[in-house]
Amino acid sequence: MIRRIASSRLWLVALLLAPAPSLADAAGDYAAHCAACHGEHRLGGTGPALIPETLGRVKGIAEIIAQGRPLTQMAGFAEQLAPAQIEALEGFIKTPLDQTPHWTPEDIAASREMAADYRPAAAPVFDADPMNITLVVETGDHHVSVLDGDRLEVLDRFATPYAVHGGPKFSPDGRYVFIMSRDGWVQKYDIWSLREVGRIRAGLNSRNIAMSHDGRWLAVANSLPQTLTILSTETLEPVRVIEVAGRDGTPSRVSAVYQAPQRKSFILALKDAPEIWEIATDPDAGPFHDGYVHSHEKGMEEAFGAQQGLFARRRIPTDEPLDDFFFDPGYRNLIGTNREGTKGVVINLTTGARVAELPLPGMPHLGSGITWDRAGHKVMATPHLNEGVLSVIDMTDWTLVKQIRTDGPGFFLRSHETSDYVWADVFMGPNRDEMHVIDKQTLKIVRTLKPAPGRTAAHTEFTRDGRYALVSIWEEDGAVVVYDAKTLEEVKRLPMRKPSGKYNIWNKITFSDGTSH
What we know:
13% of the residues lie in helices and 37% in strands. It is mainly β.
């Protein structure tokens, strides 16, 4: 026993005296294990940038490195790296770069590349219904397939920027689509002509894009730099770059930007400030006051920090930062969730007042929420990322109708106004090959499909008329599986390279019931 204690003490002394891994060692570990996803210079790729400016208040970085990050492609490295190496790697990515990266309006403008041989077609160059086109994002080799929703055939397949993220956005007439990559590139593609129009780099690390109500402006939410870039949809030229900071001056990343067409505005989720921003796309908007207002009487205003007109900003204070948003059909109310994913709050966008708090633990994924009519009431449903549950909320009085138990955490819900069913994947859990089909009225699972046993099934999209439901087999040698939406029987299978999201033009531009926006 004495020898064993002595031996243990010697081992402990040796451990304490051993040199800690240096930043140089950590740089090598970063290059070996992190650079492929987060970029050689830590500025992001398929994964986010790993520098102090974008890490913000992220906690438990060492644990994330060791165990991975649930609900993402971030793997854990506890088996490859010793605890001291992980600690050193955390210190490395928290270390500021020698030069803080900047991406100025001049840099954005200089990055613009327009296709010299592009000529817009006077009419679609194909004979398919241009409103029943579905775009399939193939992340396996960074392409998008243009799918005819009637014949279920691929009309074109074109290369995209690296790591498409956040969902493509269509012009209101459905002719053009804008696609954003995680490293900030925005691509414009003419669906009628089946040709790329051009591209521009709006930021260095970006989250998503949103289209204005009139189709004139495209907003790009950036984590690096911490800005909102607004582009002309006609020319792709930058027209405004708005630096994002809380009322107290603290810079903030933009978690996401959303379109609010009825309000003629963009809505921003701020990751590092307890505020919601509304950016006007109406030239007659405002004035919006940032500070003290002595009088609102016409002709008697005395106020500080007023903005009005096109791209005027309105701040809506919140109790804490809200990361993920959902909107009621009229865009009167916003439903948001806090960073911890423990609850939902309802905020009236007209008054800025908090209307209700929703019992939504388990990290609800509101961005994938959908609505439908049930028993004379409009209801919404959202999956939970940390548990096998779908929460159904009555939007009349914001009460919980039911929590539907599923075979694991899912990410996407989809339906269609012509369908009796909600389609819910469970691809965040062990039963990732399943797709639940749920009756909208009884809220019961009526069938569980397995499009490819043992392989990941995710993200359903419907054709314009709701006749077909398209499901992704989210694998490198994957497929889009087409189902008859009424009989739930397979109709066709189209091979694809790791297909992820699918976006039907008509469903998106008409804000179809059952489609997330």
